[in-house]
From TrEMBL:
<keyword id="KW-0812">Transmembrane</keyword>
<keyword id="KW-0325">Glycoprotein</keyword>
<keyword id="KW-0130">Cell adhesion</keyword>
<dbReference type="InterPro" id="IPR002126">
    <property type="entry name" value="Cadherin-like_dom"/>
</dbReference>
<feature type="domain" description="Cadherin">
    <location>
        <begin position="6"/>
        <end position="105"/>
    </location>
</feature>
<keyword id="KW-1133">Transmembrane helix</keyword>
<dbReference type="GO" id="GO:0005509">
    <property type="term" value="F:calcium ion binding"/>
</dbReference>
<dbReference type="Pfam" id="PF00028">
    <property type="entry name" value="Cadherin"/>
</dbReference>
<feature type="domain" description="Cadherin">
    <location>
        <begin position="106"/>
        <end position="214"/>
    </location>
</feature>
<dbReference type="Pfam" id="PF08266">
    <property type="entry name" value="Cadherin_2"/>
</dbReference>
<feature type="transmembrane region" description="Helical">
    <location>
        <begin position="663"/>
        <end position="686"/>
    </location>
</feature>
<dbReference type="InterPro" id="IPR015919">
    <property type="entry name" value="Cadherin-like_sf"/>
</dbReference>
<keyword id="KW-0732">Signal</keyword>
<comment type="function">
    <text>Potential calcium-dependent cell-adhesion protein. May be involved in the establishment and maintenance of specific neuronal connections in the brain.</text>
</comment>
<keyword id="KW-0677">Repeat</keyword>
<dbReference type="GO" id="GO:0005886">
    <property type="term" value="C:plasma membrane"/>
</dbReference>
<keyword id="KW-0106">Calcium</keyword>
Amino acid sequence: GQVVYSIAEGTERGASVGNIAKDLGIDAATLSARKFRMITGSSKQYFHINASTGTLSVNEPIDREQVCELKSACLLNYELVLENPLELYRMEFKVLDVNDNSPTFPLSEYHVSVPEFLSPGARFTLPNAQDLDEGTNSVQNYTLSPDEHFHLEMQTRGDGSKYPELVLKKALDREQQAAHRLVLTAKDGGDPPKSGDVPVIVTVLDTNDNAPEFEHSVYRASVLENSPSGTLVVQVHATDLDEGPNGEIRYSFSNTTSADLQRMFLIDPHTGEVTVNGVLAVQRPLLEMLIEARDNGAFGMSSTAKLLVEITDVNNHGPEITVTSLSSPIPEDAVPGTVIALLSIIDKDPGENGKVNCTIPDNLPFQLKPSLENYYSLVTSGLLDRELISEYNITITATDLGSPPITTQKTLWVQISDVNDNPPVFSADTLEVSVEENNPLGAFLYQVSASDLDMGENGRVSYVLRNSTVAGSALASFLSVSLANGSIYATRAFDFEQLRSFHFQVEAKDNGSPALSAAITVNVYISDQNDNAPAILYPTNQNGSVAVEVVPRLADEDYLVTKVVADDEDNAQNAWLSYHLAQSSDSTLFRLAPHSGELRTTRSLRSTDFLKHRVVVVVRDHGEPPLSSTVTVGILLADTLPQVLPDFEDYGEPPPLLNATNIYLIVSLACVSCIFAAFLLFLAVLRL
């Protein structure tokens, strides 16, 4: 997870630093596909990665002194983020110092006043040179231009730091030489070495021969970083053995103390109290200042002491949450442990105040896992179901360990994308549909509907008929279904007398990949219409002839002549039959039972009754409208079945009671009777 490189400051643009793909064991060809990117807190991007080869090169020359200021070790931290899968690597670049800075003095010229009565051995503090380079490239030694009155010695303070002192080696005579012009040279240890010069002008005085002396060469103090203006930091104290104005001391910051620190702190010139003067906006925990004590003599003498101020951190920075990478939406079938986001959480406070605890709510199927330093991975910890929860607002809470702690929150909006994990669902397993026979082609029967909890194409349902047969024919010849809305239509007219019911299945299938489906069984019941007239089974008229029934001539009352038998292929009331006499040659002789169809005599037959009768029977159903059929029955009154049946088309003539002989006898008798009556009439006339 980490690789360290060293690079000299000022390295030219394009110079190779290393091969990041090789050093981290990554296939360079995948860098571009995995959307690599370098993340740094620096305002400039000093390095560049070739996406094809993985070569790490200088993008911009680095000035170590500008980037790291006075830090002894100059480190640049980068993070390399790769996706698919999400990975994080840390790169650390150690910027090596190059001797590119010469020692410099804060002022262009220094003045030293030396009383003429001082004995050899008197010492005068000289300014320290500053070199922005580090280590051996910084200031290593000082030299002084040759002079018979002065020489240079190095002194060490209590903290180990060294400074140059001008030492008087021969008594001065102001009358002979009022001023001495020296050159102080500071050299560093670079190769080749660099140096800086500053003129030191020594003015010879003939008064005030004692310089102030501090009680301590180094003062140490600490102050809270949020201390208000006026807060006392420390009080320095120096003494001067001189009397009068030569012994009066004034305190001030040395010219070598940076202007920023002089604005940040104030020193009372009379009491030596150092106080806070504004906001302590510094990143360094330890501040170094030089305090000068100078007497009020005509030619004031001075000495310096070092003041080290430790800035004590207070918890005044809250954690900063940065979302480095976020994957949203995520599929609902993501396995536990899938990385969703990479977070960077930093607290600028040092120590315990900068340590952070990071949490998310417990009732979410996610968890935070620490990654590299200051990094957390947000991963799934349970199964996701978009149909239950389609999105999450994950509140990330970062709390530092300061007192009182500071809490920062950031909310991530994570959407859940749909996966085809729900099949279509019908409201029931079976469905019953009723349709009347003789329906028109394309008649609407029913609309089935299935719901799918998925969304988009995964939830779009289409309907088809499952392959099956009905009465030996393909289902498609009977029905069709709308692919889009599940409407079922008839593709033929149904006939109740041929098919009373059948069943089939409609399949609902979503448009996911792979597709999921469900089926519903539809039971179709065909209802009857009165489309069949009663069929008379007995008696039957064959070839247009009349059915003949033979009845004894002297049959008794309620004699069963015949029974009309009929059938109707319809159902229920459409098949309920009733029997009626539509026509009868003698309405007083026969009656018909309306429910059984039995034709019986209403009285005993007489010899005077006609020998043949004709009856028309109507058989009617109870449909709406009703349908009927008729049958004609010929009734022959005879004791025996004749060999040849008479024709019943001319029914209604008197029965043949006399044969030919009888007719002749009757005619003869009538004639004799007439002659006798005429004779009697004749005799009566004669007698009158």
